[in-house]
Amino acid sequence: MKKVVNLDENHKDVGRSAQEQSFTMPFIGMHKTELDTPALLIDLDKMEANIRTMAAYFSTVNAQLRPHVKTHKTPIISHKQIAAGAIGVTCAKLGEAEAVIHAGIRDVLIANQIVGAQKIARLINLAKHSEIMVAVDNAQNVQAISEAASAKDANVRMLVEVNIGMDRCGVEPGEPALELAELIRKSPNVEFAGLMGYEGHTVAKPDKAARNAAAREAIQILVDAKHYLEKRGVAVPIMSGGGTGTFNITGSIPEMTEVQAGSYVLMDATYGNVEGIGEHFERALSVLATVVSRPAPDRIIVDTGLKVLAKEFGIPQPVGVTGVEMTGLSEEHGKLLVSDETVSLNPGDKLEILPTHCCTTVNLHDRYYGIRNGIVESVWEIAARGKAQ
Ligand SMILES: Cc1ncc(COP(=O)(O)O)c(C=O)c1O
Q1: CA-to-CA separations, 348 to 114, 231, 291, 297, in angstroms, rounded
Q2: What is the mean pLDDT of the chain?
């Protein structure tokens, strides 16, 4: 979170605790290879290029960009996306919404169900300080949010989530979506703002034609649901969906008003291999590792294990080094198989690893080191890291 810095007459930063100052001060100006490891790096030029590329696309279509916070979990990056034209942000969790709203962002969609009295109380408190919107797919949940909002004189906008083939959350289109929208319309202190459908089962299909067909089929379900409601007198102002893999498919459908893409800003090896996506966006995220052991000519061990690199989408690989392949991760170790024994990587040497899943990798780290031309320009706390509640 960006903080105001107050300097006293000795240029000592009195606005932040010593602990906070030590968090950033020693690193600024260092070359990235001087950083201790494991360290999460953002190439700032690449991240800024990704923000510009996405903003340029959304200046050409009806839909607007509401980028997902779950990827970077860091308010300053949301502010950059909004400065480039995004209309607000999408969050998966209340904890993410709290982090960005406390950092001054007002227009927030929680694209997820907020269930249970404790969470609803937090949602209502946020609604007093923001223009919050939440996904719903259940009548009791609508009633519970409405009652809590009425008691606090708050207002909560709601998107009815429709199952468009991912079979995660969401009511079925047609009558079930209409019934929930009508319930919202007659409930106090909540407002029916539109429909949401996430075509998550299509976003990472590497083949462009297959992805295009699957995403269009899914979004058509949402478009049909909109027409069903409208024919029965229920206006549907917002139509929200989409991810990085479908930004220019879902984003090009005239009925869609908002796209929730998140990963594009940092990218990873998985989206990098998706045809039609990898070419548009730069890989801005990496994890800096140190070689801690070379016990055999064909084996290198680095200090980046499962606690700093996610592997559910595959084992991450080093960037810009040939003749080595990461073959396994244990808690604190990454194992590299050396196929070319002339590779001169020895204990103390550093290398960068490209994550295979940016969102879950970021969640393992406390801070980013923002790098430009190899030099640390900024250190950002990952404010919503671990905010799973
Ligand atoms: C509801 C929702 N919207 C949008 C996204 C888009 O994310 P990405 O940009 O990583 O494809 C996700 C990803 O999990 C999601 O769950």
Answers
A1: 47, 67, 5, 16
A2: 94
What tokens does 174 get? 């047609």
Q: What is the largest CA-CA distance in the chain?
A: 72
Is the per-residue pLDDT at 2 higher than 60? no
Q: Which of 125, 148, 340, 158 is nearest to 234 (CA)?
A: 158
> Residue 311 CB: number of other CB atoms within 10 A?
18
How far apart, in whole angstroms, are the C-alpha atoms of residue 65 and residue 59? 9
User: What pLDDT score was predicted for residue 13?
Assistant: 45
DSSP string computed for 7-26: B-TT--B-SS-HHHHHHHTT
pLDDT attached to residue 23? 61
Instruction: Report CA(260)–ligand 1 centroid distance (Å).
Output: 6
Q: Quote the pLDDT of residue 17.
A: 57
Q: Which residues contact 9 (CB under 8 A, 6 or more apart)?
A: none
pTM of the model: 0.93
355: left (phi over 0), alpha (psi -120 to 50) or beta: beta
Query: What is the Å distance from ligand 1's center to 111 Cα?
Result: 9
Report which ligand 1 atom has the smallest distance to the Cα of 262.
Answer: 9
Identify which of 298, 350, 290 has the alpha carbon closest to the alpha carbon of residue 323: 298
Lowest mean pLDDT among 15-24, 68-77, 81-90, 177-186: 15-24
pLDDT at 238 over 90: yes
Domains in the chain (CATH in brackets) are 32-43+281-381 (2.40.37.20), 45-266 (3.20.20.10)
Atom from ligand 1 closest to the CA of residue 71: 10
Find the 88 Cα to ligand 1 centroid distance in Å. 15
User: Per-residue pLDDT tens for 123-166?
Assistant: 999 999 999 999 999 999 999 999 999 999 999 999 999 999 99
Ligand 1 pocket, residues with Cβ under 6 angstroms? 68, 71, 111, 198, 200, 203, 243-245, 260-263
Dihedral sign, Cα of residue 270, residue 276, residue 277, residue 283: positive
Q: Which amino acid is at 279?
A: E
pLDDT > 80? residue 106: yes
Give the torsion sign (CA, 153, 159, 160, 165): negative
